[in-house]
Amino acid sequence: MLYVAGEKILVLMSPLDASQVFKDENSFAFDSFIDMVYRGVGNVSDEANRILWRTPKEGFTSLHPNPHGKVLVHPGNALLHKQLLTPSYLQELTRKVTGCIEDNMQWESFFDTSVLSSNTNTKIVSLHCWCRDVLIEAQNRAWFGEYIWELEPRMTVLFDEWDINSWMITYRYPRMMAKAATRPRDRLIKVLTRYLDTPREKRSGGVPFVNELEDEERHAGLSSEDSARIMFIILWGINSNVQMTTFWMMAHLLKRPAVAAAVREEISVAMRTTESTESTSGVTLAEVVAHDLVSCCPLLNSAFNEVLRIHSTGSSVREVVKPVRVRGKSIPLGIKVLIPQRQLLLAMEAFGFDAHEVDLSRFLRDKSLERHAHYRPFGGGITLCSGRVIGRREVLAFVALALWRYDMQPLEAGEEAFGVKGMPFPKLDEGKPSLGMSKQVEGHDMFVKVTRRDH
Ligand code: HEM
């Protein structure tokens, strides 16, 4: 048991205990944390908070069947799960988002904000900004349509500023000292509010979830601004983990050219098929990503799994709401329970004596590791990540396109090219809370020399 700011927290570090917590949703609840995030991070109004938690007995009616008498927060979550887990919705989302990633990965489309220096044949890019610009742009365009970019062309940078500084809010910094977080957050909420206040014909092209959630929230009586605050929280979850997983996966592959070359060889058959059609809509890439890259490229997927293992620093949290026993000991009501990822994912009894080392082939050599009780990088139970399928697809799409289209060479510490100096390999920041994937220590990055590849 830990005491933090006078509060008792039960920290569980065994996979068996974690399993019990994930299975028993009635005793270990998550609602108080949703409430905390909506109020503390999204800053929803008191009135909105009342509407979000109003039961059917208190007047809440859903637009969807609600046999279990849930409050607005839950059907909203169910709509997100429908978007992410129903095959036809997921397929359409994959098509849209990989199409956007493919567009953004063209030589001519590199964002100015990613390129530090260039000539006709070479670009020096910040890996952090390249992943951020390609993926956040793609995800927002896929989810909301083109119009969101007309409202705020600096969306990727604002989102990054928020993500990097969001710990100031989770650590409850005084308002005056947390402006680096509140400024980008408040701007993004303003953009989303304007988006929701725009007639639908003008903001078409997004996924059904956005309109479905908006309809449900308006029906329940939420204002545009409070709906935008909730969308903002969801968007944060969507953007942060994908961007960071891609960053770490690219960084580790670029540090190990032999493994990167083997991955390039492994993806070549699949990637060649994307070039044999005239399609630029992403349909072919979407199919290749969903089938070939996920199912037929074991080294690529092993690298992805290992990066999740090494860089997940999030925790699952619950509150005890019913009398319950853990290992025979009764746990009082109201106790918060924390299951940190990192200890489980670095355990030697699960991953071997070199569990702290990065080995991108680890999951290729031992395929059973992916199902190991210690390996839950997407959490479990009610908070098991519903974006795990699309998340993997997006990361693999970026990595495969980068390896297939470009030769990339990281600038070593002290090495200089085109006036840009390289830096040491980025370090993971263990001191700040994360939504799952760790960030790098602020200011750490990898600068990469990128040229086009002939194949
Ligand atoms: C590779 C990328 C991703 C990683 C590593 C990741 C990781 C995680 C983790 C660790 C959790 C929390 C588990 C817990 O509290 O027990 C989580 C939850 C969640 N993630 Fe992800 N995630 C990724 C991508 C995505 C994407 C792309 C989406 C949406 C499009 C998404 C949507 C969610 C949602 C909605 C939750 C809350 C649980 C739920 O209701 O599904 N994630 N994710």
TrEMBL record:
Write down the SUPFAM superfamilies for this protein, in alphabetical order. Cytochrome P450 (SSF48264)
The answer to whether UniProt assigns keyword Cell membrane to this entry is no
Tell me which cofactor or cofactors this protein depends on.
Answer: heme
Matches recorded under InterPro entries = CYP450_sterol_14alpha_dmase (IPR050529), Cyt_P450 (IPR001128), Cyt_P450_E_grp-IV (IPR002403), Cyt_P450_sf (IPR036396)
Pfam families in UniProt: p450 (PF00067)
Recite the UniProt keywords alphabetically.
Answer: Heme, Iron, Metal-binding
Transmembrane regions listed in the UniProt entry: none
Write out the similarity annotation. Belongs to the cytochrome P450 family.
Q: What is this protein's record name?
A: Cytochrome P450
